[in-house]
C-alpha cells in the first residue's frame, strides 16, 4: 500500500451552540488548546466578527494566550450584544500535516484529530486511524530533547565515630548522615517536563545505593526543580569510610511538541535549512523521539524494575540488565577440583563433582570418588535475593534473565532521540 | 534539510543530516494524560494521602524473646536479708524480635478512557515525599534534628535518597510541600536499612505497573507500595530479675513491653502525572 504525505489547511470547530450565562458574564469563552490568535474565526448569530489581529483599532474580539491555550475575549464595544439565546461558533483554521498508510482517496478519513467531535461522520475509529498513521499533527509528540552528560565527583564521606549511646548490630557507633545536590542540566521546560537519567549507560533507578561499604551507604535520586534537573545524594556512614567515587550521568529532558504561538508558523514554511508545517508540529528543528531496538539511548518501562524479598532487592534495568543483585560476601566452604570452583555445576554436567546445585546455584556436600576434590574456604558469594523476579537467581554470575528476552517480552521499549 | 523518498519510505533530515522523521521508525506520542493527587499539597503532620501509603508493622509480627536461667544461692545480692537454706531465683534475658514481613499495597491511579485500548508505553512523573518527620521517629529518639526519619533500634535511621520535602515554619508550625518532581516510571527505592555487614534488612519501594486493557476497560496504571523486611532479633537484650521461687514470668508485662514502637512506621504522600503513550506504525 502506498504512503501519503499531506499538509494543508483545515477548519476545526471548537464551539457551536448558544452562549452559557457564565460566558456572557465573563464576556469570554475558552481556553482552547489551539494557536495562534490569527487563526481564530468567530461567528455570532451568523455574522462573522472582526478579530483584533486583523483590525487592531476596530474589532469585536481578541485572543489571549496562556499555557492552557487560547481564550476568546469579546471587546467592550460588543459585550452589550451578548445573550444566552444567541448562537456562537468558534473555529480555528490551522495547517495540518498527516502521513498515513493509504492513497490520497482516503485523506478525509485521517484529517480529523484524535478527539473527533461527537457526531462527526468518519468511517475510521480512533484506533483504526492510529493503526495507519505515521504522523498526525493533531497528536502530542515528545521531542526537542535537551540532553547533557555530566561526571559527578561524589566526595569521600568519613566514618562515624564510636558512640556508646547509639547501637548498631551489637556494636556502638555514631550515625552520620547528610546530603548534597548536583545540577545535571538547566533546562527550558518547567516542573512538568518529563526526564530520564542514565548512569553508565543504564537507567538510573531512583533511590538506589550507588555505593556501599559495610553498613555505610550512598544513594542518589534525580528530580526536576522546574528549571533544572538535579542529582540528590544521601549518604549515611557507620563504622566504615565511603571513599570518593565518580559517576557519569546522562540526562534527557523532553518537551511536548504543541502548536506554536507564533502567527507566522501557521503556514507551510520551507527554507534551505528547515521544513515547518502544521503550526510548527512537524519541524525539522525538532528531534522527535523514535522507537529503537538495536542501540536505544534509553527505555520507557511498563512495569516494575525491582522486587524485594526478606529485605533484599534485585534490580533489572529497563534494558534487561540485572544492575543490582548483591551477593553474600561472607566466606563459606565449597568444593574445588583441579583449580575449578564448582559452585554452579549442575547435575549431569561434563565436569560434575559433588551434588547437584540447589535452586540458588549452591552445591552442598557430596563428592565423587572418581573426581575427589578438596574443600576450601571461598569468598565467592551467592545472591541474597531469593525471589523469582527475572528468573531464579543463583551465583553472582547467574542473573536469571537476559537483556533480549526482557525487552522483547514487553517490559520496556527502546527509544532514541 | 532533506526529504528522501525511496522504496515507499519517507525520510526527513535536518540541516545537520540527523534523521528527524522516518516512516519506517515508529514515533511515540501521548494519547492521554491523567493527573492524580495535587502537586500543591501541603502537610503539617504525618500524612499518607489518597495516593500515598502508610507503612507499618502489624502487631502479629512482633514478639518478645525470653531466655530463663535458674540460679540457686544464698542471700543473692540483697542487703538486709537473711536466708535460711538454698533458694531458687530466675533470671530472664529479654529481647525484641520480628518475623519476616512481605506486603504490597496497590492503588489504581489511572485508566485509559477508551475501552479495549492499550498503551504501548507509560511515562510517570510525580511528587514524592516522606512526611514522617514531625518530631516523630528519629528526632524524638535521638533528640537530634538532623535525624529526621523513622529508625530501627539496632540498625539506625531508615535511609532514603528521595529528596526531602520542603519545610517552612510559620509561627512555630511546620508546613511541608513537595520538593520538585521525579521520574517515577519503573521502581523507586523509598527507604532501606542495612545490617552491620552491609546486607539490606528492610527495603520499601514504589513501583508503577501497567495492566492491559479488557473489552470493557482501557489499560490501567497501578502504584504498588511494597515493604520487605527480614527476621530480626535485637542485640540489645535486657536482663530481668525474677522473684524467689517463681519459675515463670509473664513476658507480656516485661519492662520491654511490645517489640516495636511507632518509629518503624513511615508515611509517604505522592502526586502522579501519568502519560499513556502509543507508537505510530
Give your account of this protein's structure.
The complex is a heterodimer of chains A (417) and B (281). Chain A has five helices and 30 strands. Chain A is mainly β and 417 residues long. In chain A, strands 1, 3, 4, 7 and 8 form a five-stranded antiparallel beta sheet that branches. Chain A has a four-stranded antiparallel beta sheet with strand order 9-18-13-14, with no helix packed on it. In chain A, a hairpin with a 5-residue loop joins strand 25 (312-316) and strand 26. Chain A is elongated and about 85 Å long. The two termini of chain A are 28 Å apart. With 281 residues, chain B is an all-beta fold. Helix content of chain B is 2%, strand content 51%. Chain B is built from one helix and 21 strands. Chain B has one helix at residues 137-142; strands at residues 2-6, 9-13, 19-22, 28-36, 42-43, 53-55, 62-73, 87-98, 101-111, 121-130, 151-152, 156-157, 166-170, 173-177, 182-183, 187-194, 200-211, 220-229, 232-233, 238-244, 266-279. In chain B, strand 11 and strand 12 form a beta hairpin. Chain B starts with a strand and ends with a strand. Strand 9 of chain A pairs antiparallel with strand 4 (28-36) of chain B, so a sheet runs across the interface.
How much of the polypeptide of chain A forms β-strand, as a percent range?
35-45%
Rg over CA atoms of chain B: 29 Å
Instruction: Give the beta-strand count of chain A.
Output: 30
Task: Give the total of beta strands of chain B.
Answer: 21
- Write down the secondary-structure element order of chain B: EEEEEEEEEEHEEEEEEEEEEE
Largest sheet of chain B: 5 strands, antiparallel
Low-confidence runs of chain A (pLDDT<50, min 5 residues)? 331-379, 394-398
